[in-house]
Amino acid sequence: LSPLSDLLSYTRFLCTMRSKSRTYDYHSIVIFRLSSTTGNEPDGGSDSTRNSGSPSTDAMQLYAMESTCPHLGADMGHADIEDTDVGLVAVCPWHRYDFDLKTGHSETGLRACTFEIQIRSGGDGLDDQYIWVEAPGDGDWEVVEVRPVSEDFADPPDLSRLSLNDAGSTQPQEELDQPPPSTLLEWAVLILNTPQPQLKVDRTRQAVTAFRTGKLKSVGRNKPLARPPPDMPPRDQLNVVQPGKVAKRGKAGSVKSRIAILHALANIEQWAIDLAWDMIARFGKEKVDGEPLPHQFFLDWTKVAEDESKHFSLLRKRLEELGSYYGSHTVHAGLWESA
């Protein structure tokens, strides 16, 4: 998988593999590195999964588990690790289903796939020791990427603030003061009509969390929408131009060029959020062979919207670290217009 020394800076890693014979087939697992004395993750720095120390192999336990919860597909990279009477368990961040880190068994009757993981030594130093993990299925896999899991978005938003206001938005005050929508389709239309970027992200996280946890119970298939989804989602405090009018960004050889590229990527993520909600708003009431769309359709597209929100937030944060901000450059709607 990788040298052991590469897995000492963080305590959770996402490993992506690709089938050698079926190159379209990918599989992801999460690797947990825990302390052998407490079963807890080592303390770290500013990121709750980070650890700057260099523990010995005798002071750690390694576990490998499929990256998504078998219940409804939650990201197990953000699972809580708890020490119970039956051993260490990973607790799903969405519905608190617990899975034994060794066997994958859960009190709910579900089972997550777990994989044997070993440290094999080729010498005395940490650089001479390697992580080996059992391959899924037929074993015909190659490692594509091993990357640390960030905890920046692990905590769910505060659902007591479902009716969000935002001082920087030009939306009418009476619209901002409305109670939260009661159906997923109403949320989709509201978010599509939200022009302020951060408010769009916050509302996305709140709607997705409420839907997954059952606080938002209705899709809204049979309830008329007060307004249709917009032909073009509005943008607040942004200079929107035609794609050909956007200034050249360069090749990332300077800070100025990197800022321009990051800004362009952040713009893409904002439109990607809208495209995910537009799928829900426009097709949520459709039927296939006389049957309404399955619940999984809505789970999948809300997950896409949430993922794009995470991507935008990371890019915006990096822009600010470089001394810039989202809105400092012109943007275009090419992604939306091409969809």
From TrEMBL:
Keyword annotations: 2Fe-2S, Iron, Iron-sulfur, Metal-binding
Pfam families cross-referenced by the UniProt entry: DUF455 (PF04305), Rieske_4 (PF22543)
Compositional bias per record (Polar residues), positions renumbered to this chain: 162-173
Residue ranges, annotated region (Disordered): 152-179, 219-238
GO molecular function: 2 iron, 2 sulfur cluster binding; metal ion binding
InterPro entries recorded: DUF455, Ferritin-like_SF, Rieske_2Fe-2S, Rieske_2Fe-2S_sf, Sol_Rieske_ferrdox_dom
Metal-binding as UniProt keyword: yes
Residue ranges annotated for the Rieske domain, each copy included: 61-126
Ribosomal protein among keywords: no
Transmembrane segments: none
The protein's name: Rieske domain-containing protein
